[in-house]
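Re: that backbone. Tokens:
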């Protein structure tokens, strides 16, 4: 009867809004992204804001503001309207089993210290707008209960790790770069350089006889490609050794004494597509005692990073990409 719907307007997770600081772990599970568990890091001192790390990646840091915002959004959800009570219809609202192939549902759990559950729900489709409200809505269900609901409030849950980590490693402007060397495993080397920082363009070293530079933009682009180390995933360096004999080595030198060496492991088999795994170790030399260099070393030394096939293609140019036949030859 009507008793089921007596909770309209009530918070979906009663009391959570007053206890957000007690949320100690956030677990997201989806077919697309697998399991991501964010754990609050122990505060090492009063200055430490207590960041968040991802358990499945050895506590690699995730964006704290994003984790905190998700917990707040969950706390703000209120019951709006009951939907289907037939589990066979759940997938239509993207509320099926998050494990099932093709499922778009997300299982979301918030726990306090010691694993005490604070919230446990399956999040489905979003409604961009609700009648008579500027707010959006979210379909959800509580596991084990045969009732789907529409809640007032919007929740945006990134299913992929790349949506939760800082994907930009470098903030090194192209104008600082003096020289880039690309060493391919088969022995081909591509080198660009500038003599003076004010020079408008990089020089491509060793242009073969009868050839000329196709475009100065593509040559200059090799220096700008330090921005293309946008990371999709992370792993402990010790767990993912890279064989220098089989890797592409790219070395960036700045005019102010920083040297970044990227060792890029090429995937087995197919070099293209979403399954192609390019893993990179990054080593930063020079700049000792500067916040930039020391910060980069702290962020990169323990880890290897995965980049996409198209990022690799932007970074690791070959001579044939840069030159064409000279006229009249």
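Recovered sequence:
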């Amino acid at each position: 009867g009507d008793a089921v719907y007596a909770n309209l307007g009530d918070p979906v997770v009663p009391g959570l809004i007053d206890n957000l600081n007690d949320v100690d772990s956030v677990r997201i599970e989806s077919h697309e992204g697998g399991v991501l568990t964010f754990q609050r890091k122990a505060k090492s001192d009063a200055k430490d804001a207590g960041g968040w790390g991802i358990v499945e990646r050895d506590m690699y840091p995730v964006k704290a503001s994003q984790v905190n915002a998700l917990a707040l959004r969950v706390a703000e959800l209120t019951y709006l309207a009951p939907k289907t009570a037939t589990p066979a219809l759940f997938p239509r609202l993207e509320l099926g089993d998050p494990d099932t192939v093709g499922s778009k549902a997300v299982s979301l759990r918030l726990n306090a210290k010691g694993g005490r559950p604070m919230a446990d729900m399956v999040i489905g489709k979003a409604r961009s707008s609700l009648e008579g409200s500027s707010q959006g809505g979210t379909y959800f269900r509580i596991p084990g209960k045969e009732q789907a609901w529409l809640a007032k409030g919007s929740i945006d849950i990134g299913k992929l790790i790349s949506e939760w980590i800082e994907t930009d490693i470098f903030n090194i402007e192209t104008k600082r770069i003096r020289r880039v060397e690309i060493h391919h495993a088969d022995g081909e080397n591509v080198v660009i350089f500038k003599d003076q920082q004010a020079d408008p363009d990089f020089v491509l070293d060793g242009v073969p006889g009868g050839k000329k530079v196709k475009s100065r933009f593509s040559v200059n682009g090799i220096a700008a490609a330090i921005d293309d180390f946008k990371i999709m995933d992370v792993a402990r360096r010790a767990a993912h050794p890279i064989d220098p004999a089989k890797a592409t080595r790219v070395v960036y030198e700045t005019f102010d004494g920083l040297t970044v060496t990227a060792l890029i492991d090429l995937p087995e088999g197919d070099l293209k597509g979403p399954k192609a795994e390019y893993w990179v170790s990054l080593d930063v030399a020079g700049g000792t005692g500067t916040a930039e260099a020391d910060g980069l070393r702290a962020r990169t030394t323990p880890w290897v990073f995965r980049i996409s096939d198209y990022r690799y293609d932007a970074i690791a140019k070959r001579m044939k990409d840069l030159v064409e036949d000279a006229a009249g030859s």
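The longest strand covers residues 117-127. The mean pLDDT is 92.
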